[in-house]
Automatic annotation (TrEMBL):
Lineage, uppermost ranks: Bacteria, Pseudomonadati, Pseudomonadota, Alphaproteobacteria, Hyphomicrobiales
Name of the encoding gene: pyrB
Residues that bind carbamoyl phosphate: R54, T55, R104, H132, Q135, G260, P261
Protein name: Aspartate carbamoyltransferase
Binding positions for L-aspartate per the UniProt entry: K82, R165, R219
GO MF annotation, one: aspartate carbamoyltransferase activity
Reactions catalysed according to its record: carbamoyl phosphate + L-aspartate = N-carbamoyl-L-aspartate + phosphate + H(+)
Self-association state and partner proteins as the record states: Heterododecamer (2C3:3R2) of six catalytic PyrB chains organized as two trimers (C3), and six regulatory PyrI chains organized as three dimers (R2).
Family label: Belongs to the aspartate/ornithine carbamoyltransferase superfamily. ATCase family.
GO cellular component terms given for this protein: cytosol
Amino acid sequence: HRHLLGIKGLTEPDINLLLDKADAAVDISRQREKKTSTLRGLTQINLFFEASTRTQSSFELAGKRLGADVMNMSVGNSSVKKGETLIDTAMTLNAMHPDVLVVRHSSAGAAALLAQKVSCSVINAGDGQHEHPTQALLDALTIRRAKGKLSRIIVAICGDVLHSRVARSNILLLNAMGARVRVVAPATLLPNGIAQMGAEVYHSMEEGLKDADVVMMLRLQRERMSGAFVPSVREYFRYFGLDAEKLKAAKEDALVMHPGPMNRGVEIASEIADGPQSVIEQQVEMGVAVRMAVMETLLVSQNQGPRA
Ligand code: CP
């Protein structure tokens, strides 16, 4: 694979290979000397049209730890402000001979579109409500390290599934790995066809969390809602916010996950986000390792043969 545009199309062996490489990258990141020469001489450009804390900073650190030259394109100060299009912006950067473009954009399919135009690798860092593949990989790595496997574990993905590219990528990955996936949400926050994607649907936290090994909370994306469809925060927290009482339904050693950014007191209580079952900080650590593994896989094997 030259690009990573989504989890769709990846097989169980593809995913296991990436997770195994990421495990090794965790060890590198925990050493005092973190820099390797795996991508020495290669250029990585991060092109983020939407806000990001975790994804952008971890892609930057991942590239630097692999020895690449990393440039963060500051879209807010770029000629996008003057009306330059996504494709023209990408083609301009492409003319500077990067080896990889890491792209986040509000439109589904943006990364796939660029992959057809530019002559380097493209990694999707989140495209609209479509996919966020490196998030699903880092979530899988976090679960696999804690539980020792992904097959047959029960994962409850809770909250605003409708607007979530994280949920889509996770459902695809967890199904490919043989996990059991549930979604727990009010009907208004579920997309059409969710059951066909391979998720069992629940509308109550008590039922959906019963015997779950993993409880994955999602951010309520109020900025993507309008009018009558914006739920009241108090009501939402009461029925779908994860607190100590609701968490009791899950297995005693269930992991609590959240991709971030979190709305404390909206989809998750602070005491749970900071509690003993939370692996939210481990998710962030795994994010750097997974992005190192993805770039190494795309760029090192690519450079072994003649370039197109
Ligand atoms: N999880 C995630 O994508 O976070 P950011 O939006 O901060 O990158």
